[in-house]
Amino acid sequence: MNEPPSSAVTQDFGDNGSLGQSNVLSKRLNKILETRLDTDKETLEALKELSNFFPENSIQSRRNLRSKIEKRSLAINEEFLSAFGKVKDALDSVYNDVVSIDSEVRAMSSHLQATRAQTHQLIDHTTQLQAQSKKLTMEQEVANAFLERYQLSPAELAVLQGTSRDSPITPAFFTALQRAQSIHSDCRVLMQSGFQTVALDVMEQMSLYQEAALERLYRWTQSHCRSMESSETAALLTEAMACLQDRPVLFKYVLDEYGSCRRANLVGLFIDALTKGGPGGALKPIEMHANDPKRYVGDMLAWLHQTIPSERESLIALLRECSKTDVTEHIHQILANITEGVCHPLKVRIERILSTDASTTILYSVASLLGYYHQIFSQVVPESIFSNTIAEVRTLAQNRFLSALQNRVKQHLVDRLDAPPPDLSPSTSVSALMSLLKEVLSVAGVADGRPEDIAKMVGVVLDPLLQAVNLSAARLPTTDMAVYLLNCLYQMQATLSLYGFMDDRLERLQAQSDAQLDTLTSEQASSLVANLNLGPIYTILQETSRGPLSNVPGMDAASLKHFLVKLDAFLGLPDMLLLPQISLLLSTVHRNNVKHRAFEVICTIFKQLYVAVHDPVNGYQNPNGLIPRTPEQIQELLLGDRQ
Amino acid sequence: MSVGPYNYSYIFKYIIIGDMGVGKSCLLHQFTEKKFMSDCPHTIGVEFGTRIIEVSGQKIKLQIWDTAGQERFRAVTRSYYRGAAGALMVYDITRRSTYNHLSSWLTDTRNLTNPSTVIFLIGNKCDLNAARDVTYEEAKQFADENGLMFVEASAKSGENVEEAFLETAKKIYQSIQDGRLDLNAAESGVQHKPSQPGGRNTLVNDQTASKDSCSC
Prior knowledge:
Among the domains of chain A are: about 170-380, no CATH class; about 530-640, no CATH class. Chain A has helices at about 5-15, 20-35, 40-55, 60-150, 155-160, 170-190, 195-225, 230-245, 250-275, 295-320, 325-355, 360-380, 385-415, 430-445, 450-475, 480-495, 505-530, 535-540, 555-570, 590-615, 625, 630-640. Chain A is mainly alpha-helical. By secondary structure, chain B is of the alpha/beta class. Chain B is built from 7 helices and 7 strands. In chain B, strands 1, 2, 3, 4, 5, 6 and 7 form a 7-stranded mixed β-sheet that branches. The longest helix of chain B is centred in the last third of the chain and has 18 residues, at about 160-180.
């Protein structure tokens, strides 16, 4: 390889300027000379390669070398070319692939682009919808909450309205009703917050529900109020009444219904007690004792008395939740209503008893029993038909009693009022009537009889009796009359003083006695004066104009002596000169009273005489000898130790 | 029970009897008011008191009829024995006469009440032991012979008063449990209030009676 370039250089040398050429040449030569072939790898390599196809260094070969190398170079280039042709083909296919990929990707990308554009719209739409949905949900919640708060649930409504006309009331009913009420009142808040229309609508709706519900409740209550004894209904009824108290008319209707059904029940029970009696015959029916009016009437009234507390009790139980109205008035009215039913059976029975010929005392005790129960019932059920009925039969009994008493009195007086007996004791009719009165008054008992009733009763007996006694006494001489009347009056007083409320009567009797005592006293005194010959002495002593008494006839010492002898005899045995009738006086008080007062008269006259005799004007000699006794002594002897 | 209109299950009717002045009204007052009434007036006819007690977990309302001891009210008070579930017969331990009359009271009670009526004898005024006129043993024997329950009590101190009323109620309740007392019978002196609808035949009577009356 070194040869060609040197030849080329030589050629160049020959073509160009000789100096410059020789210089360049030298430089080149130097350079070639300086070239260290053993270190030039490239050259070594080329030489090595050359050695492969240039095995023999011959002229021929040297001549061919060039073409050989050129051929070889050509072959290599051709080889190279074909190899590159393959590479190019491969690259071309790669290129094609890439191009197709690119186009596909491009298509995809554009597709994506389109899709994205499309999706964007969708998303927008979705978001919009979502927002809308959220809003709607919210609205729904609000609406639900509103409904929950301001409307009844279907279940509640169903309970409230009932599935059928006769569907029962349950505790849930009251809860629902309560809810309707609270919704109604909640509407105020709604109204204040500015939702007038809605609020008013809801209020109206609730009012309608309430109205309908109460109407239903009313019908139910009315038909069930008779079963207060079953616990569930009872509890519901109590609640129902509390609800209904807002509707006074319905409330009243229910109570009326309750009253009338309890009334019927009470009548039934009463008749059972009267006719069937207690369990297994252990308690005889009340009517078994119809022959004993006192017991019969008493049993009936006691039974009623004992039943009323239970009625009151269940009534209070029924109304105990009713706090808004004053139930006491209602309770009064309904109790009056309930007890009204028994009035008739009771009245009929009592009237029957009273129309029989019961004895006066029995009539009296029945009347008194009725009086007692009238007091009781006018407290328990005041101003009711029942207590009026009792009052009525009581008056009836009272009148029946009084007329029976009147009849008895009349009978006694007509039949047996005979002339006073010789011993001037009260006639038998007085004793009989007094014992009748006593009998009746001792019965008195139960009801503390009213004073006016007792006075009336006593009057019925006493007035005709006094009349009769006075009539028969009028036929007697004065003394006998006085004694007889005093004896009669005495017996009456003795009877009456045992009882209360008799003061008035006793006072009148006492006044009558006093009059008779006065009469009797004056009779007795006159008789004493006559018997002691005091008459003329007393007359003379009373005269005012006179001379010395010793000179007056009848007042001379002899006459006085005669009197004093009689007086001595009298003083020895004072009772000897008493009127015989005085001893017939039944009352020792009367007897002593008359005696005492008559003796007082004698004492007084004696005292006058004594003073007169000791008066020197009257000219008695030895007055002490004439009248040995002093007035004091006389008084002591006659009137006892009293001064 | 508290849901019903009645806060008790039964009503027991009691009657208190005995001579005048033995302290019947004071016993009742002590039982219902837990107080001693020092100047108690004589009872006129009958008085009425109530209290709710509890026996075996059952609330029972006692309806107590206190009678006058005075003889003149006998006609009235006799009518109240009818249908009493319990009779409290009271005498005064310081007055023998009130004890001596017990047999007549007992006769009345037996004649006028159910065989199932529980009779409880109470010797009242046991606070006045110094003035005692009737021994405990004697009265106890009387009670045993006649099958009565017996206790000495004092309306003044309140001793045994509660017990007497409660024991009587327990005995009555026992009779109901044993089926000796027929609740369905009218005038048994016991009324069954709620819990047993129709527990009393009056309920049935109710309806029939009201129907009768409605139709007329």
